[in-house]
Amino acid sequence: MTLSTTAPPIDAGLVASLRGLDRNGRLLFATRVLRMFGYGFLAVVLVLYLAALGIDAGLIGVILTLTLLGDTVISLWLTTSADRIGRRRVLVAGSLLMVIAGVVFALTSWVPLLIVAATIGVISPTGNEVGPFLAVEQAALSQATPDARRTPTFAWYNLAGYVATAIGALAAGFLGQMLLAAGYAPVDAYRAVVVGYAIVGLLMAVVFWRVGAAVEAPPGPAAEDGIGRRLGLGRSKGIVARLSALFALDAFGGGFIPQSLMAYWFHLRFGVEPAILGGIFFGANLLAAVSSLSASRIAARIGLINTMVFTHLPSNVLLILVPLMPTLPLAIGVLLLRFSLSQMDVPTRQSYVMAVVEPGERSAAAGVTGIARTTGAAISPALSTPLVATAGLAAAPFLLAGGLKIAYDLLLYRAFTSGRAPDERAQARRSGA
Questions:
Q1: Which of 33, 187, 209, 320 has a Cα at 20 to 30 A from 314?
Q2: DSSP, residue by residue, 292-304
Q3: Which CATH architecture describes the domain 18-217+230-415?
Q4: DSSP state string for 269-294
């Protein structure tokens, strides 16, 4: 099966899904933009900042791992409780945890305190979603969106995030390079970016506070006793468990080479400076943004699961090829090609999870599957950061990441290729397929 990497024209369904957003939907899109700008802003310089503080590669890996593990624990409690204690409250709380983490990282170089802030705060070393936000926002958007428009709405939602991440990466590179050129020490130049991250968290809290009560969970059947009830899951717990195991494997692979470590690898391998790093990841995230709009159209033709697998497999082969490129332009070219495919599975994955679980369990389901991803990603940086900094082993994280993610694609296809989402089955019956 051949899939074009060129984004098709934006069709009427995609436009309608965006125009149909109400005030709450627009506010949720705004917080997505703010948050992903902050994540992209920080990811480019995070490892460079910690290294400039004098922290060795092994400890940096521990900090990154504990950052993701802490996000996992906090997010598990917040997302599985969101439908009971209030989605807006959870979103505001998560924003304040971003502020706390950013302020502590900016004010101290004492490793134990950094570890505490990394564990209880919300920081994204990957440039991707962490914390409770994604799960709760997905549930709120699904509640306000007809099934037929859910995947296009998620495509726009992800496009907004990718563009914001790209601009954040570019802004961080520009700001860091400007301050370095003005004579600031590297640690002070990178610290300015960390302070900016804390400001983004504060702005998010203000916007989330303005979201209306219509985003709160609808009443539904009570969850069964046992672990399902503690996680906010009832009838959906079986499929959520299977998907969570697979998503954890995918994220474990991706965690070997998050964007912050990619930036560090380019800096070590080719001597790339912050401004160029910002440009590289601006382009990478912009390609991911444009390609995400293709996901809903491809899914309408071949199904959500097939779209997830057949766009993800070639991107993982390209990831393996990045460190094998002998020159900087070739490495950048392969990386950009990889980003043009790698994120098409995201809106389809999100839509599939929302489609196959009970409406009243969507926050919990998105939270549990998201936590599985964060947990998988949390383990890898402690293993890969020393490898990136070791001569002769710097390519290993790319190879491990690509190989594990390919295994995920094959297992996902085997487990779910015959299972359509309910709205896909309904559409097939209407069309006689």
A1: 33
A2: HHHHHHHHHHH-H
A3: Up-down Bundle (1.20)
A4: HH---HHHHHHHHHHHHHHHHHHHHH
Q: Answer positive or negative: Cα dihedral of 233, 234, 237, 240.
A: negative
Tokens 């306000």 sit at which residue? 144
Encoding tokens for residue 45?
């310089």
190 phi and psi angles, rounded to 5 deg: -75, -30
Q: What are the pLDDT digits (tens) for 63-116?
A: 888 887 787 778 788 888 887 788 899 999 999 999 999 999 999 989 889 888
Cα separation, 196 vs 160, whole angstroms = 20
- Which amino acid is residue 291, in one-letter code? S
CA distance 370 to 42: 21
Q: Nearest-5° angle of CA 173, CA 31, CA 206?
A: 105
pLDDT digits (tens, 9 = 90+) for 361-392: 888 888 888 888 878 887 888 888 888 878 78
Say if residues 48 and 189 touch (Cβ distance below 8 Å).
no
Contact between residue 55 and residue 115 where contact means Cβ atoms under 8 Å apart: no
Q: List, for residues 198-208, the tens digit of each pLDDT value.
A: 999 999 999 99
365 and 357 in contact (C-beta within 8 Å)?
Answer: yes
Least confident of 117-121, 189-193, 336-340: 117-121
131 vs 88: CA distance, rounded Å: 14
Contacts of 388 (CB under 8 A, 6+ apart): 57, 257, 261, 264, 265, 268, 394, 397
User: Whole-angstrom Cα distance, residue 243 to residue 308?
Assistant: 13
Contact 347, 295 (CB under 8 A): yes
pLDDT tens-digit profile of 413-427? 998 876 666 666 655
3-state SS assignment for residue 44: coil
Mind giving me the DSSP string for 202-231?
A: HHHHHHHHT--GGGSPPP-PPPPSSHHHHT
Task: Determine the distance from the C-alpha atom of residue 139 to the mean position of all C-alpha atoms in its chain, rounded to a whole number.
Answer: 16
Q: Is 433 exposed, middle or buried (0-12, 13-18, 19+ CB in 10 A)?
A: exposed
Which tokens go with 387?
């490898």
pTM of the predicted model as reported, rounded to 2 decimal places: 0.71
Residue whose structure tokens are 């079986």: 238
Helix (H, G, I), strand (E, B) or coil at 191: helix
The residues near 433 (Cβ < 8 Å, ≥ 6 apart) are none
Given a cut of 80, whether residue 161 has pLDDT beyond it is yes
pLDDT confidence bin for 1, thresholds 50/70/90: very low
